[in-house]
Amino acid sequence: MRRVIVVLSAFVIGVLGVAVLSGPANAETGWISPGSTVCTDRTQSSGGVTIYGIGNNQPSLWTVFAASTVNGPETVVFRRSTGSIENYPTVTHPDPGTYFYRFCVQNPRTDGFRQVVKLRMYGNGPIGQAGIGPHNAVLTQNSMFCGEFSRGAARFVARSNVPVRFWLQGFDSDYSSRHIVFDVTGTAVDQVVALPAELHSMEACVSTPASATATATVSFDLVGA
Predict the structure, then answer these.
(1) 188: Cβ–Cβ under 8 A, 6 or more apart, which residues?
(2) Which of 133, 164, 183 marks a domain boundary?
(3) Among 100, 122, 161, 219, which one is most buried in terms of CB atoms within 10 A?
(4) What is the pTM of this model?
């Protein structure tokens, strides 16, 4: 959970073609087996959200949910079955106001192929806050999902209904090398983890083994320490 408000540069705004004022939920990446769904954390916005998604082994099922409160009842405001969403559509709730948005993708295939997916979501409008709450996922066997970056020490909080692997991978300044900073298998994590001095940032991940017989319902978050 990174409670920040970020004003993007004019260059980024020009590329997106929208007046984006609140920062993005960091890029989430998944390698997900059929039946798996992965979701970003929440972005609060008074002007809707701009989304971007890439997937292979199409189609993927992309959905944006909106709620008037952080954990309130959600409404589906966007749903599309396609390989990728690369034209940066803006998604808004039909009623004016400030909402908490969440972007999810599901692998609906039944033939056993894993999908590689990447999600981005940007809040629009004068009121906006990114990185609210945990990431959530439903993972079938042999699936992985990463998100939640930190550039300093962070409290890693994670939960699952069945044992899964939770870990933090660290990156150097040019993201060319990965290092495992923290690694545990279980159903719960609540651990403050320091970022090694030689690394630039770290990212939280969760995965299920190929031998898994139960579906994992997981959440994970990095909170500033």
Answers:
(1) 158, 159, 160
(2) 133
(3) 122
(4) 0.85
